[in-house]
């Protein structure tokens, strides 16, 4: 009996059967009652579906467990991930939307976001859907109108979109506004007003003064915004955006040659930076050419614009765009080689450039080829032919990730040095935005090996927070200069994961519904996708049973129409729709449907809410109040609103940070080997999670208070009431507030005495060491240098005085360096070079350092400034003898003076005073 009970318990799972198990083993339970329960349990077991071979957060299934796990990790990157770079880390408070990078590129580029944004579009729920709306809205906010100059002074033609756009609002860098690398890129007061903005109508790299307008990124922007609107299906928003979309289409159509129906462009007019250097005629003049990418992307944009026009009932416009798209498609074979692959361009003389294997101009350009397949510009047969040829050229992905072209361009005059050296940047480098579209294209064509390998490689980089763009060394590693940062995160990297998960199904958003077509690896025999596919207000969950050709499909139990080529029509999905697609000879097992989403569980641990001293700020949202706001939103059944979702996402980041810290201590945090790339600074990564959560919470209060650059900002009135009840909004900084000024950059490093660069104690002795909050006079310093004994008369405000052990940390708070006046002194008897007082990153400029270098010279580093090793600075001290070193900082005079043995040796003059915002 006990054995049978155990078998049944194992089959049902412990969590479900705990209560019954207690009943079965309770003292006095009769045998008849036990048998009755067992009979009931047995019937449940017989009806229950077998456990999946792989059960993940976002997907489950049977068969190829490795591929299922990779898919699960890819979906994890599109939310809040504990283990890797994820979408939640790309939030920008200035425009309450997505940003390319919070560490290096605080704007929104079309070329960089094309692959990731297009790939993730079907899966964007709140708050990410609104963030994407606001990010792409930057491109249309100041699109070219034929009158307004951009940041470089160029007046773009009407309808052109931008290479990049950004807005910096007032509020201060410390609150998440402005440029991370420029402290004063915004004023300190959060008033909702714009401090700075930038818009670029031309490709901004490599000689923008000679570049053509950005035809390629205008076409890609058309694709992405149309796709976003087709997913969200907000008719009011479609109607509002439609005039601008039509202006973009008109601008692009102005580049279409009426004789050939192909688009023309010049230098830098293509999407991916200036990889197209232009074409020069016999007279030395630059001419426009038939650049293949432009026609393909415009055609893809028209396909989606047609559906939007149909959606709002503008059938006349739809008919016109449909005819144009048909004409372009009919003309595209003129831009192919004799094997059916697309060339890079055809010049006015009719010569084709980018014919792979040709003696001249014999390279393959990746972008037009994978984009033609990913955007469904070419049919299924052409798609298979193009992708099969691309993957057969192994040199296009030497490190499992696609590079832009192979071999190197042999175009006359094409630059080949510096960034343009082959394999470094746009010339043979790797761009994850392109890999995203390549992954979609590959899966459509039935090529599974390449996209899964690319994600396996990029996923490891993302787990190490070294996912930058581009990757040099033919896709091997970020540039060495980028590796100097504590971590690398750029939105591009999400293209690899987003392209993989979108490529598993083709999602064709139409005016009359959604069509899907599966492209799962043949080794997966059962696939459950727990990540919703968004269709307006509908959430669609897809299950696939079996392999091979699609045989049947049901949505919420109702049979779907299936086309001859395997498309499943979802005409009128409900609010929650569970779809099962059955393939081959498999029997239907039923569609997976989600249960009720559970509220977050926050640990009752004071450490969970601790904020490092250098990140504390009275003008940030109190995160405990954010928790109260979220919990009250859940009680009011408002957790699915934008405001509720934004609060939840910020708290999810805190939970992910907390879990990372636990996993680090337990040694279970995945850190794969990615040689030759070094791993990240884990402390800095955890800080990034926290600062993004704080900035997100601040962005939520901005939204609730109407502090925004967007018109029509209408927060939920119920959310505003709850926010007021819990006191969510922090006190606002005003122009009258005193801002903290610092000569020494603030950091959280310990203040160390007498250490080597490697961290151990230096040879020698350390005597009295003191730190005062006053700028002492030369007479005061001479008095300190007169004796090594303890200070008896403590008339000066002193933070610390004592005789610390050499190599030890002084018992000081991290922010002691922010005082307006400081004097530090150390008695030292060194036996060689080393660091006397150290509060700085090794090789960095984020603090201050007094050390002994070279010929026993005393050097001082404050921020990015240093002194002590110049010939006119007599800073040498004697080894194995006691010397008194003192440094006096005075913010009023902006000077720092170093004294040796009571005598002034040198001055660091005109030190920059950095305010906190």
List the helices and strands and how they pair.
Layout: H1 2-12, H2 14-25, H3 31-47, E1 54-55, E2 59-63, H4 65-76, E3 91-92, E4 97-98, E5 108-109, H5 110-120, H6 128-141, E6 164-169, E7 194-200, H7 215-232, H8 235-253, E8 264-265, E9 279-280, E10 286-287, E11 289-291, H9 292-311, H10 315-331, E12 345-346, E13 352-353, E14 364-365, H11 366-374, H12 380-392, E15 405-406, H13 432-444, H14 449-463, E16 466-467, H15 472-475, E17 488-489, H16 494-503, E18 505-510, E19 513-518, E20 524-535, E21 538-545, E22 550-555, E23 558-559, E24 568-570, E25 576-583, H17 623-635, H18 642-666, H19 682-705, H20 717-726, E26 741-742, E27 752-755, E28 764-772, H21 778-785, E29 798-802, E30 821-830, E31 834-839, E32 848-853, E33 857-862, E34 865-867, E35 883-890, E36 895-900, E37 903-908, E38 914-915
Parallel strand pairs: 16-17, 21-25
Antiparallel strand pairs: 1-2, 2-20, 3-4, 5-6, 6-7, 8-11, 9-10, 11-12, 12-13, 14-15, 18-19, 19-24, 20-21, 22-23, 22-25, 26-38, 27-31, 28-29, 28-30, 30-35, 31-32, 32-33, 33-34, 35-36, 36-37
Helix pairs in contact: 1-2, 1-3, 4-14, 4-16, 5-7, 5-13, 5-16, 6-7, 7-8, 7-9, 8-9, 9-10, 9-11, 11-12, 11-13, 13-14, 13-16, 14-16, 17-18, 17-20, 18-19
């Amino acid at each position: 009996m006990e054995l049978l009970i155990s078998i049944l318990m194992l089959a049902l799972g412990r969590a479900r059967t705990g209560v019954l198990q207690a009943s079965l083993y309770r003292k006095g339970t009769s045998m008849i009652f036990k048998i009755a329960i067992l009979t009931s349990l047995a019937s449940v077991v017989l009806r229950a579906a077998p456990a999946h071979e792989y059960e993940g957060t976002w997907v489950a299934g049977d068969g190829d467990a490795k591929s299922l796990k990779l898919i699960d990790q890819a979906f994890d990157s599109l939310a809040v991930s504990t283990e890797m770079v994820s979408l939640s880390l790309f939030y920008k408070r200035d425009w309450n939307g997505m940003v390319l990078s919070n560490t290096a590129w605080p704007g929104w580029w079309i070329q960089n976001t094309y692959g990731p944004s297009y790939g993730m579009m079907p899966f964007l729920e709140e708050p990410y859907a609104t963030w994407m709306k606001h990010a792409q809205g930057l491109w249309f906010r100041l699109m070219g109108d034929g009158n307004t100059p951009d940041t470089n002074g160029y007046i773009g033609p009407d309808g052109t979109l931008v290479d990049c756009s950004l807005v910096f609002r007032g509020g201060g860098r410390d609150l998440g506004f402005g440029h991370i690398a420029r402290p004063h890129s915004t004023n300190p007061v959060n008033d909702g007003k714009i401090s700075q903005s930038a818009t670029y109508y031309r490709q901004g790299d490599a000689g923008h003064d000679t570049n053509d307008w950005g035809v390629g990124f205008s076409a890609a922007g058309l694709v992405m915004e149309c796709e976003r609107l087709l997913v969200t299906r907000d008719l009011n928003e479609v109607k509002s955006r439609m005039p601008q979309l039509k202006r973009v289409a008109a601008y692009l159509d102005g580049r279409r040659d009426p004789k050939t129906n192909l688009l023309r462009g010049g230098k830098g007019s293509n999407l991916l930076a200036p990889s197209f250097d232009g074409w020069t005629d016999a007279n030395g003049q630059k001419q426009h050419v038939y650049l293949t990418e432009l026609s393909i992307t415009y055609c893809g944009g028209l396909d989606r614009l047609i559906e939007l026009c149909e959606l709002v009932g503008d059938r006349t416009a739809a008919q016109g765009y449909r005819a144009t798209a048909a004409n372009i498609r009919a003309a595209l074979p003129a831009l192919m080689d004799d094997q059916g692959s697309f060339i890079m361009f055809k010049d006015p003389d009719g010569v084709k450039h980018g014919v792979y294997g040709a003696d001249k101009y014999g390279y393959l350009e990746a972008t037009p080829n994978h984009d033609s397949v990913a955007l469904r510009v070419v049919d299924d047969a052409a798609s298979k032919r193009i992708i099969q040829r691309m993957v057969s050229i192994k040199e296009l992905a030497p490190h499992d990730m696609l590079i832009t072209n192979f071999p190197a361009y042999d175009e006359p005059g094409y630059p080949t040095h510096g960034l343009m050296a082959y394999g470094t940047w746009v010339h043979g480098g790797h761009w994850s935005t392109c890999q995203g579209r390549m992954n979609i294209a590959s899966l459509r064509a039935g090529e599974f090996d390449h996209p899964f390998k690319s994600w396996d490689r990029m996923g490891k980089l993302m787990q190490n927070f070294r996912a930058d763009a581009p990757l040099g060394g033919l896709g091997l590693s970020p540039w060495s200069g980028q590796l100097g940062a504590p971590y690398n995160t750029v939105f591009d990297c999400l293209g690899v994961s987003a392209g993989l998960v979108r490529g598993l199904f083709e999602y064709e958003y139409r005016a009359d519904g959604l069509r899907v077509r599966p492209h799962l690896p043949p080794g997966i025999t059962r696939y459950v996708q727990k990540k919703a596919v968004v269709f307006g207000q509908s959430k669609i969950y897809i299950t696939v049973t079996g392999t091979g050709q699609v045989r049947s499909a049901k949505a919420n139990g109702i049979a779907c129409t299936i086309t001859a080529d395997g498309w499943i029509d979802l005409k009128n999905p409900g609010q929650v729709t569970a779809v099962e697609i059955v393939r081959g000879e498999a029997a239907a097992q039923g569609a997976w449907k989600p249960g009720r989403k559970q509220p977050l569980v926050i640990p009752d641990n004071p450490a969970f809410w601790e904020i490092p001293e250098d990140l504390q700020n009275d003008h940030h949202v109190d995160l405990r109040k954010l928790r109260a706001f979220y919990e009250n939103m859940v009680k009011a059944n408002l957790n699915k609103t934008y405001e509720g979702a934004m609060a939840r996402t910020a708290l999810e980041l805190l939970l992910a940070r907390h879990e990372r810290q636990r996993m680090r201590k337990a040694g279970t945090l995945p850190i794969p080997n990615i040689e030759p790339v070094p791993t990240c600074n884990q402390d800095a990564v955890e800080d990034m999670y926290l600062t993004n959560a704080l900035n997100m919470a601040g962005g939520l209060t901005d939204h609730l208070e109407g502090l925004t650059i967007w018109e029509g900002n209408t927060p939920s009135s119920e959310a505003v009431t709850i926010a007021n009840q819990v006191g969510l909004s922090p006190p606002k900084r005003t122009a009258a507030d005193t801002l903290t000024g610092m000569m020494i950059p603030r950091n959280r490093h310990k203040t160390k005495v007498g250490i080597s660069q490697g961290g151990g104690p230096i040879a020698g002795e350390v005597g009295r060491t003191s730190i005062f909050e006053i700028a002492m006079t030369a007479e005061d310093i001479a008095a300190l240098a007169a004796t090594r004994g303890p200070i008896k008369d403590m008339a000066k405000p002193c933070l610390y005085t004592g005789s610390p052990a050499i190599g030890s940390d002084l018992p000081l708070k991290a922010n002691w360096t922010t005082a307006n006046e400081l004097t530090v002194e150390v008695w030292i008897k060194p036996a060689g070079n080393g660091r006397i007082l150290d509060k700085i990153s090794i090789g960095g400029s984020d603090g201050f350092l007094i050390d002994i270098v070279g010929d026993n010279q005393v050097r001082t580093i404050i921020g990015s400034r240093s002194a002590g090793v110049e010939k006119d600075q007599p800073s040498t001290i004697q080894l194995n003898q006691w010397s008194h070193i003192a440094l006096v900082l005075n913010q009023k005079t902006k000077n720092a003076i170093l004294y040796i043995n009571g005598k002034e040796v040198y001055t660091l003059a005109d030190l920059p005073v950095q305010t906190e915002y």
